[in-house]
Amino acid sequence: MTTLGSLPADKPSLELKFAWPRNPAPHQATKVAGLITLPLSVMLKTGVPRSFAAGALVLVTGAIPFRIRGRVAVALETLLQQMAIDECAGLVVSSAPGVHQPFPQALRDMSDQTGIPLLVTTAPDESWADVHAGIQTHLLLAAEQRASQINSLVQQLPAQLTDHKAMQRITDWLARALDVQVLVSERERVLAASPPTAAEHLAHAIIRQSVESTAPAGTTGPHTQLISLAPSSGAEAVLAVARRTPFDEADLRLLRHTAKILGLVDQARCEYRAASTASCAARVAAVELLLDGEVSKARRVMRNLAPGLLDPDNARAFVIETSHTRRDATMRRCETATAGNTLVVADPVRHDRVLVIHPVRPGEADDTVAGELTRLVSALGADASLGGSGVYSLSLLADAVNEATTAQRFALRQPDSVALSVQDTDLVSLLPQHAAQLWARSVLQPLMQADTQWEQMRETLPAALAYPYTVAARRLDLHRNTVTRRVARAAELLDKDFAALRDRIAVGLALEVVTHREPSVPPAGLLGGEAPTLRALLDAPEIYAWAEAMLSSARADRRGLLTTATAWLTFDAHVEPTARALGLSEATVRSHLRALEGYLSRDLSSLSGMRDLHFALYLVTGEPAIPVAGRELCAA
Predict the structure, then answer these.
(1) Pairing mode, if any, of strands 343-346 and 314-321?
(2) 3 state DSSP class of 184
């Protein structure tokens, strides 16, 4: 932008200088919008033009006398008056070289009154020929630059007003566009800064404005500007900018435009935060009502917030544990990952937990949300874990949350930190590692005396205990007689009767603990301490919770499934004596066992399935008995 101060510096050939006032500094920054050349002879003959373009610099050419007086002085006074009306930038007259002050006192006084400076040039008229075109070119370039800046500013507008990065993005753009340091702040916190060190440089201006309690809209330092983002609403957010060079009017306009946009973004942020807080409170209230069994009230609370979300009669619950500093971010990621199909709230008791309620519609696959949450927990890292429940009636959501909470504790022992159901949790992973190793090695010690013998037994026994010998031989690619001989030898060394289910279960568990937890067996001396009994090994709160959760659905069945299961296990998984003892038909016993498999999600023809059922029944009901120290039997 061309100014009265820049014109002599840019074009020294004009030999232009201020003649009045004595201190021209206030006029140096006056913008020049164009040049109007007015020959003195024409002005004396036809008079002063009736209007001029605002911001124009008027050049009077021709033979100006050594001292301006008479008709020339009157004409210049009339010209100066018209220029003041049209807000022109300045008056220039051609002067002979060496003339110090061609303007009489009357014109100088009028200059002071109108605020229009008086300048002289000693350059020939031809030197001014291209000045107007140059000024117009500068104006055009400046206009294009401002248009480009405004266009760029508009492009910074967020697609969504809830975009939490929008304010920082606009701040970064402003810092680049005007080469300034930018700070957007409230009284107690910084909302955005560019560069990051801007807060330190602008702190003094902010503090001074706060102390003086002045309205933040203007210059507070040589090259510092403070602008309120929303003065009409009394908002506390302020835009502060600073740079080494002064701001011109175009810069200030751009700052005001930017402040308005930042104000809208800040307003959207505040309103979204208020709406989000209200929404969060409503969701928490709905979950609390569901936990109290008030399903109808919870549906009314959520009717407008999430229409149809709570219409299903069944739901699953999930519990995510993470660091308390990441809980809010985790909640947002859960809402995004589940695409509005869940009710996500912060745990009202624990600051490091998130509750996710997933209503399940009839016939709908209920594992999609579970899969998304599993991937989310995996992405969150090692400090996150996920527990899930089975499908419960909405009126029993409190039970679902209890199961999910228990599963989350189990998840801490899982390699992937995920347990989507207590029933699906592996019992071996819940056992205390050191104690389980001591117990398992005490049971298997006779087999572990010789390495060759141990390798054979370790390979053969898991299959031989779980399947008929013919099937085990085929799976191990051994002769049936070899399997039979090794099993008989193991039974002899361990003093066990593998025809008895409880002995097969105890040895099978010991083998799984040793081989799953520590495949390579260290010297026995490396494991110190006294071996616990199996009953003591199972005496842990999380294992009791696992047993309760496993049997909870089956206990509600009126057919007495647990009574059938207890008798069946007592008779070593034989159906005929079980039916005879209970006074039932064999078909009924088999029907009960099939129903149990559905409730427990276990294959009761497998050793691990029978083991889990056996231990769960013992922990919950006290029957059937379990081995203690491998030989002694114990009933509750």
Answers:
(1) unpaired
(2) strand
124 CB-near residues (< 8 Å, 6+ apart): none
Residue with tokens 């929303």: 230
| Per-residue buried b or exposed e for 530-558, using 16+ beta carbons within 10 Å of the residue's own CB | ebbbbbebbeeebbebbbbbbbbbbeeee
- Alpha-carbon distance of 417 to 385, in angstroms, equals 5
HEC per residue, 426-458: CHHHHCCHHHHHHHHHHHHHHHHCCHHHHHHHH
Residue 400 burial class via C-beta count within 10 angstroms: exposed 0-12, middle 13-18, buried 19 and up: buried
Q: How far apart are CA 82 and CA 313, in angstroms?
A: 85
**How far is residue 542 from each of residues 90, 409, 431, 537, 624, measured CA to CA in Å?**
90, 8, 9, 12, 20
Closest by CA position to 345, among listed 358, 360, 355, 335: 355
Angle of CA points 613, 619, 622, to nearest 5°: 100
Is residue 156 over pLDDT 50?
yes
Query: Could you give the CA distance from residue 284 to residue 213 in angstroms, rounded to a whole number?
Result: 41
For residues 217 and 246, the answer to whether their CB atoms sit within 8 Å is no
Tokens representing residue 155 in the block: 């492009």
**pLDDT attached to residue 571:** 92
**471-488, pLDDT tens digit by residue?**
888 888 889 999 899 989
Instruction: Round to whole Å and give the CA distance between 104 and 115.
Output: 16
Q: Reduced to 3 states, what is the DSSP secondary structure of residue 237?
A: coil
Confidence of residue 583 (pLDDT cuts 50, 70, 90): very high
Spatial distance between the Cα atoms of 255 and 249, rounded to a whole number of angstroms: 10
The per-residue pLDDT for range 529-554, each reduced to its tens digit, is 688 888 888 888 888 888 887 888 78
Q: 61 has which bridge partners?
A: 39
Contact 346, 327 (CB under 8 A): yes
User: In this structure, what DSSP letter does residue 31 have?
Assistant: B
| Helix or strand holding residue 217 (H, E) | strand 217-221
Which pair of tokens denotes residue 593?
Answer: 């066992």
**pTM listed for this prediction:** 0.47
Burial category of 634 from C-beta neighbours within 10 Å (exposed 0-12, middle 13-18, buried 19 and up): middle
Structure tokens at 2: 């061309």
627 prior amide bond cis, ω within 30: no
SS3 category, 221:
strand
Residue 149 to residue 507: CA distance in whole angstroms: 79
Q: How far apart are CA 584 and CA 575, in angstroms?
A: 10
What is the edge-to-edge ordering of all strands in the sheet holding 90-94? 16-20, 118-121, 90-94, 56-61, 34-39
Q: Strand runs (DSSP E) across 385-519, as ranges?
A: 385-388, 392-393, 418-419
Angle between helices 480-494 and 451-466 (to 10 degrees): 110
Cα–Cα distance for residue pair 31/84, rounded to 1 Å: 15
Task: Answer for the pair 556, 393: CB distance below 8 angstroms, yes or no.
Answer: no
* Token pair for 71: 């008709």
Smallest Cα–Cα separation from 425: which of 555, 514, 551, 546? 546
The mean pLDDT of 577-602, rounded to a whole number, is 90
Q: How many CB atoms lie within 10 A of CB 95?
A: 22
What is the dihedral sign for C-alpha 543, 548, 553, 558?
Answer: positive
